[in-house]
Design brief:
The chain is α+β, with helices and mostly antiparallel strands and about 70 residues long. The chain has 2 helices and 3 strands; from the N terminus they run αβαββ. A 3-stranded antiparallel sheet has the order 1-3-2, covered by helices on one side. Strand 2 (about 55-60) and strand 3 (about 65-70) form a beta hairpin. It is globular and about 30 Å long.
Amino acid sequence: MTRPTLLLLFLAAACSSPKAAPDTTPVAEGYQEVTTRLAALIEHEMRDKKIPAVSIALVDGDRTVWARGFGKAD
């Protein structure tokens, strides 16, 4: 391959986006109430402070019991 071809392949690989991760991890049993309250609080604060996006993960020990993305940011 010539150098321009290698460069083109590199650029194509660099520009391709990886498979998107899911924007939520389902709520684990026993955490529904707290996640509902957290989601409401986050949505309120985003509106109030004009925050475009927030990501949160709720962890108990070494286990993710809930994760979610709110909004969208570039």
